Amino acid sequence: MTEAQALDILSESVFTILKAASPILASALSIGLFIAFFQALTQIQEMTLTFIPKIVGILVVLMISLPWIFQRVDDLAQRIFDMIVMAGVS
C-alpha cells in the first residue's frame, strides 16, 4: 500500500464519518437553538430544559437515520475490502 492509497482511505473515512454524524449533529444544533431562543423569550433558565429535548431529538433522529448511516459505513467498508483484495494483501 502506498502513501497515496493510505491517504485516500483516511480522507474517505473522515468524510464518511462526517456525513454519518451530520444528521445527528444538525438535529442537536437546531434543537439547541430553539431551546435557547425559548429560554431567552421566557427567562426560564432550567438546566434540564436544555438536555431532555436534545436527548429525545437525537434518539429520534438516530432511529430514523440509522439505516442510512449503516449504508454509508457499509459502502466504505466494502470499498476498503475491495482495495485489500485487489492489492493482494492477505
TrEMBL record:
InterPro entries reported in the protein's UniProt record: Bac_export_3
Membrane-related topology note: Multi-pass membrane protein
Pfam families with a match to the protein in the record: Bac_export_3 (PF01313)
GO cellular component, one term: plasma membrane
Entry keywords, A to Z: Cell membrane, Cell projection, Cilium, Flagellum, Membrane, Transmembrane, Transmembrane helix
Residue ranges crossing the lipid bilayer per the database entry: 20-39, 51-70
Compartments in which it is found: Cell membrane
Domain of life: Bacteria
Biological process annotations from GO: protein secretion
Family from the record: Belongs to the FliQ/MopD/SpaQ family.
Protein name, entry field: Flagellar biosynthesis protein FliQ
Organism: Salipiger mucosus DSM 16094
